[in-house]
Amino acid sequence: MRILICNDDGVYSPGIVALAKVASRFGEIRIVAPDVEQSSMGHAITSSRPLRYRRTPLPGGFDAYRVNGTPADCVALGAFGWKRVDLVLSGINLGPNLGSACWHSGTLAAAKQATLLGLRGIAFSTAVAEKEPDFNSLEPYVEKVLKLLLEKKNMALLNVNLPRKPKGILWTRQALRQYDGEVVPGQDPLKRPIFWFTVRPLAGEEKGTDRWAFAQNFVSITPLRQDLTDEKSLAQALALEQGKAAAKSATPTPVRQKRIKPKSKRKRGSKHNVPP
Question: Can you give the CATH number for the domain in which 203 is found?
Answer without folding.
Answer: 3.40.1210.10
